[in-house]
Design goal:
CATH class of chain B: Mainly Alpha
CATH superfamily of chain B: MetI-like
Number of helices of chain A: 9
Helix content of chain A: 25-40%
Shape of chain A: globular
Oligomer: heterodimer
Distance between the termini of chain A: 46 Å
Shape of chain B: flat
Number of strands of chain B: 0
Distance between the termini of chain B: 56 Å
Number of helices of chain B: 8
Structural class of chain B: mainly alpha
Structural class of chain A: alpha/beta
Strand order of the largest sheet of chain A: 6-7-8-3-9-10
Helix content of chain B: over 70%
CATH topology of chain B: MetI-like fold
Radius of gyration of chain B: 21 Å
Strand content of chain B: under 5%
Order of helices and strands of chain B: HHHHHHHH
Order of helices and strands of chain A: EEEHEEHEHHHEHEHEEHH
Largest sheet of chain A: 6 strands, mixed
């Protein structure tokens, strides 16, 4: 189904309600392979829900999400395979606390890609070196700092060799001095050409790293443009007032 | 008769009773764990009939005294069906169902106490629902459950004393026989209490060791 013209992610008329609360009110959006897209907006605006619909952690109430042209549907037989290609990094890391750092990295490749354990460990070691944590391979997650946990979480997602990475406020639960080390890893990943969708409150990072910024407010995409367009020349009053609030802080 | 003569005379019978108590405890807890696991899975099933069966078991076990449950099984059901079973079998059935009901609630609570983010992280990596449950959720749920499970084991071991009422010559029943013969209530119940205490104490030590061994905290 996928060819070079198919967008990496194709979202059409996406609605999501929780009970009577409609969080997403019709979102249309294409993300091209290699694009780095930052999603910003006030809390409760639906940014995280938007992100979680992309790998179908939330099922759309209406509308469709396609990755490489494949419909992301919880009931689809191949949903597990489709998710293998979409890595996700969570605000609260969600490392598996009963597994060592290396086991966190190898469990999915071994179970899903039928990779030999030795091979998976080798891949895992390369990834840990990339995020600067090769010495922590045998450590248990609870012995790591927040920044280290999040770098392991990024490595764990990368171990499946995904074509798309989703980041759900990856630095929001970190102590300020640890934000930099995580953003550095993400910056490196962007430079290598990874397709990334990042929900973030780090405006400096969004401006510097992203190709495109989406401003989501009240369940719709209110602004969609280059960082320069969105940050310097926002078209909506809502965007202006949001940016004023976060940038003056 | 001084205390040591009494001890000497009654110890063989008490030890025999304790042996039976340990047997009844072990067999009952073995089946209770199986019943507990199956019932907790039923309780979390999408199937409404399976959920109802679990709810009924828990409600009956909670809502009636173990003493009544034991009488009902040993005299009530056997009378109705016109069959005879041993007191040991009746005791095993009563204790297994009783502890199984409580354990199913403990297991369900443990599974539901695992951070939902764990399931999300596993599914986002492509792990199937089954792989997520067995590789990610259950190992963490077991750790959460250990203290409550051990607590239930202690309760059930002590509850075997209730089975003395249907004539099984376990530790409490043995004590009653000794007192009927010697009239030495104080010393006998003191010895019996000490024996229960030692069993529970050893189990608690073992549990603490295991808990420490599998702990995820630094």
């Amino acid at each position: 189904m996928s060819n070079s013209n198919t967008p990496k992610v194709q979202i059409r008329d996406l609605h999501k309600s929780f009970g009577n609360n409609e969080v997403l009110k019709g979102i249309d959006c294409d993300i091209q392979a290699g694009e780095v897209v930052c999603v910003i907006g006030p809390s409760g605006s639906g940014k995280s829900t938007f992100l979680r619909c992309i790998n179908c952690l939330e099922e759309p109430t209406q509308g469709t999400v396609r990755v490489d042209g494949n419909l992301m549907d919880e009931k689809a037989k191949n949903i597990d395979e489709l998710r293998e290609d979409v890595g996700m990094v969570f605000q609260h890391f969600n490392l598996f606390p009963h597994l060592s750092v290396m086991e966190n990295l190898t469990i999915a490749p071994v179970l899903r890609k039928k990779m030999e354990k030795d091979e998976a460990v080798k891949v895992g070691m390369d990834l840990l070196e990339r995020v600067g944590l090769a010495d922590k391979a045998d450590a248990m997650p609870n012995s790591l700092s927040g920044g280290q946990k999040q770098r392991v979480a990024i490595a764990r997602a990368l171990a499946m060799r995904p074509g798309l990475m989703l980041f759900d406020e990856p630095t929001s639960a970190l102590d300020p001095e640890m934000v930099g080390e995580v953003l550095d890893v993400m910056r490196q990943l962007a430079k290598e050409g990874m397709t990334m969708v990042i929900v973030t409150h780090e405006m400096g990072f969004a401006r510097q790293v992203s190709d495109r910024v989406l401003f989501i407010d009240q369940g719709v995409i209110a602004e969609d443009g280059t960082p320069a367009e969105v940050f310097d020349n926002p078209t909506h009053e809502r965007t202006k007032s949001f940016l004023n609030k976060v940038l003056e802080a | 008769m001084d205390f040591f003569s009494l001890l000497q005379e009654s110890l063989p019978m008490l030890l025999q009773g304790m042996g039976l108590t340990l047997q009844l405890s072990a067999v009952s807890l073995f089946f209770a764990m199986i019943i507990g696991i199956v019932a907790s899975l039923m309780g979390m099933s999408k199937n409404i009939v399976l959920r109802a069966i679990n709810k009924a078991l828990v409600a009956v076990v909670r809502g009636t005294p173990l003493l009544v449950q034991a009488f009902f099984i040993y005299f009530g059901i056997t009378g109705l069906l016109g069959i005879r079973i041993t007191a040991f079998l009746a005791g095993t059935i009563a204790l297994s169902l009783n502890a199984g009901g409580y354990l199913s609630e403990i297991f369900r609570g443990g599974i539901q106490a695992v951070d939902p983010g764990q399931r999300e992280a596993a599914r986002s990596l492509g792990l199937s629902a089954g792989q997520t449950t067995w590789r990610i959720i259950i190992p963490q749920a077991i750790r959460i459950c250990i203290p409550s499970v051990v607590n239930q084991w202690c309760i059930t071991i002590k509850d075997t004393s209730i089975i003395s009422v249907i004539g099984l010559a376990e530790l409490t029943n043995a004590a009653e026989s000794i007192i009927a013969r010697t009239y030495r209530s104080f010393e006998t119940w003191l010895m019996v209490g000490a024996m229960y205490f030692i069993i529970i104490w050893l189990l608690t030590l073992l549990a603490r060791f295991v808990e420490k061994k599998v702990s995820l905290d630094e």
